[in-house]
């Protein structure tokens, strides 16, 4: 077990390193000077440009730039934002809680509602409910999140005035408002972005759970459970569903990056003060260190999520747990 | 399937159907007109006909998607075949790189590159979409090749002394065509969404070329007065991607009965 | 012979085919199971014996269904007429099943004890503690040493033979009157096979169980069963006491089966496999279903379906040869 864990961790580290190196070269592959684009966007004196160039080490040859990049990475230094003039790590730390709240809500929705609906589809395999849910979830998969967000913000937020459509906290909320009022306000702001993000992503969980549950329902032990005279509910939700949950754990790791990546568009549209909107703004402002930082974070979540999945799988499945 | 054929036909026939392919402004009718007899989908803030722009957008979006997927499927098949068939250190190195590349969400890969371009030529944009989409495909094809390598007819060909390249081209490639086709179909839907997203962020196809994502970006400011400028291009994306994905699903079931 | 517990009459199971037609893998099966006896249902794979056993608890997998007109009587009660709750009350409680592959037939994520206790609690209002004690007793009864350790183990921690013992313990948990054992030893080593059969036999004697033993292996049947019903292509072609069947097999299919089984006693004979394969349930041959493979085929066999005839008391077969003999 320990050896396996060390091996799996080393593999994750290598993958992340390869990803980081790829990113570095991707940024440098672009023809011309990254700062040239910057000068086109805002007025800058040549001294300023030279300072910036020195600051980002762009005046040095590529190999030494790379060494600098790796050294910074090792120390947890992601550089300084051009736009905000603050370290990228600080920015990320400021924006992370909002993204975690949104991403966490969506994950919770997907893994409760999505798992339940997917399992239900398998139970009603081929029946109208199954077919309708399949079509609806596939349609959700085809919807561009930014478009759905815009339409919802317009309809629910502006036209019907049901829910706030922008930001995370009402700017008019008095500073004296208590914790309860504050939480309620945030929750109201959370509904639309979380719903949007969930609609466009829940299909994956549903389809995965559906397949896993169809497989589980075909297992001989489900037949045994029926032959024992257990109630149909117990057969389905205890015997079939519990075993079908293991493959679905895999998805959890895959969805972890949603916290940063999936929400670029949605956070941008709803002006949610998280990492996604930070990234979206960085794109228009050509704020490379921020884009780089967000990409690195996303990559680390992908790699970390994969690692976590494998470890959780090993820890939870009695077949592997007791096999040591 | 029918929807898909319809979409492609509309996209191809667009210049013949519409007298106004460039979606020129209709100053006489005015800006932000709601859908009506003259402009079925209404007009936008520059008094351009939304229907014409949606249809022209279909041409652009579908062309980009098909070309980009052609690039990525070719690359993916090549890398997958090489890694799977040659094996050894070639396979190890290629798959580590693919692992690393798969760790960066595709959107971020594109953002890292795209954001730096002064003005992105369409061809470069297509190439970028193509070269960032083959990692998963190569994995898939590698797996297929590893399986096919054990097949008696491949072993027989090897025993007969057939050249490696011949084995790859004659025996392995045709047998991976099914999964490749499925990957390509689902890839098209993916690229349509990605391209729309990038154009919406203002880093994809630049105006005035109409793309669905770009149209939604333009409509953002006038959403409250002219929601149709946003609704129709969005619906176009949904219908296209849904049709492509449904087709891909059906294709998968036909190609691989295990998933049926 | 004692009272019948289970009576099956004209059982037909239909599956829709791709062409919109129906396949009948079980097509008119009838037999009676008496208290305290072991009836063996023998046939090649694909003959419909497993489906027959599943039908007894109405567990035929969708989209298959038992056709109307089929009769299943358990102690005078009509199983076909039961609603879901009544059916559930009989499953496991009165009629229990032991399946072929004990690895996949036990749920991998629950311990052996949990699965036995669950069965008890599904039918009786016992406390978990009392149910656990009973489970321990059952494990001991089926010959598991160290039941206190085994009860909290998962199936994958046990050997194949031990898993099958757990399956049997689970099946007997609520003292059923009928035990259906579907190929209970196929997945096991030869030495373990004998042990499992021994246990089944002992329990049958002690508890007065009626056992329906489903198998493709005539070697198992010889020592364990009182009567044998031979199935071919969805029907019972010959039924007789075990002794009669082995000494005087009458149906050409039974004769073929016996010739393909290696014997340890008697003169060494060459094994003769039956040529051809079991036909497809969607396209049963016309006339006698065995005629394409039958060494004694007559013109009549190709056209007419033989009906079931008594050769002697308790010895039936469906073959035109029976009429020839009778004449």
Structural notes for this entry:
- The complex is a heterotrimer of chains A (324), B (260) and C (327).
- Chain A is mostly helical.
- Helices cover 76% and strands 0% of the residues of chain A.
- In chain A, helix 7 packs parallel to helix 11, helix 9 packs antiparallel against helix 10 and helix 12 packs antiparallel against helix 13.
- Chain B has one domain: MetI-like (MetI-like fold, Orthogonal Bundle).
- Helices cover 70% and strands 0% of the residues of chain B.
- Chain B contains 11 helices and no strands.
- In chain B, helix 2 runs parallel beside helix 11, helix 3 packs antiparallel against helix 6 and helix 9 packs parallel to helix 10.
- With 327 residues, chain C is of the alpha/beta class.
- Chain C contains 13 helices and 13 strands.
- In chain C, helix 7 packs parallel to helix 8.
- The chains are: A mainly alpha (324), B mainly alpha (260), C alpha/beta (327).
- Chains A and B meet through helix 1, helix 2, helix 6, helix 7 and helix 11 of A and helix 3, helix 4, helix 9 and helix 11 of B.
Shape of chain B: elongated
Distance between the termini of chain C: 30 Å
Count of helical regions of chain C:
13
For the residues shown, what is the average pLDDT of chain B? Answer: 77
CATH architecture of chain C: 3-Layer(aba) Sandwich
Radius of gyration of chain C: 21 Å
**Structurally, how many domains make up the residues of chain B?**
1
Name the average pLDDT of chain C: 85
The main sheet of chain B comes to: none
What gyration radius of chain B follows from the Cα positions, in whole Å? 22 Å
Distance between the termini of chain B: 18 Å
Number of strands of chain C: 13
Helix content of chain C: 25-40%
Question: Largest contact between protein chains?
Answer: A-B, 51 and 46 residues
CATH homology group of chain B: MetI-like
Based on the model shown, name its key terms.
heterotrimer, A: 324 residues, mainly alpha, MetI-like fold, globular, C: 327 residues, alpha/beta, Rossmann fold, eight-stranded mixed sheet, five-stranded antiparallel sheet, 13 helices
Task: Outline the fold blueprint.
The complex is a heterotrimer of chains A (324), B (260) and C (327).
Chain A lengths: L1 H28 L4 H8 L4 H10 L6 H13 L13 H36 L4 H15 L2 H15 L19 H39 L2 H8 L4 H24 L7 H8 L4 H10 L3 H29 L1 H4 L3
Chain B lengths: L1 H16 L32 H37 L1 H16 L2 H9 L7 H10 L3 H14 L3 H8 L4 H12 L1 H24 L11 H8 L8 H28 L5
Helix pairs in contact in B: 1-2, 2-3, 2-5, 2-6, 2-9, 2-11, 3-6, 7-8, 9-10, 9-11, 10-11
Chain C lengths: L3 E13 L5 E13 L3 E5 L6 H7 L9 E2 L4 E4 L2 E2 L5 H7 L4 E4 L3 H4 L6 H12 L4 H14 L5 H4 L9 H13 L5 E5 L7 H18 L2 E6 L2 H7 L2 E6 L2 E7 H6 L4 H8 L39 H5 L4 E5 L2 E4 L1 H7 L1
Parallel strand pairs in C: 3-9, 3-10, 7-8, 8-9
Antiparallel strand pairs in C: 1-2, 1-4, 1-5, 5-6, 10-11, 11-13, 12-13
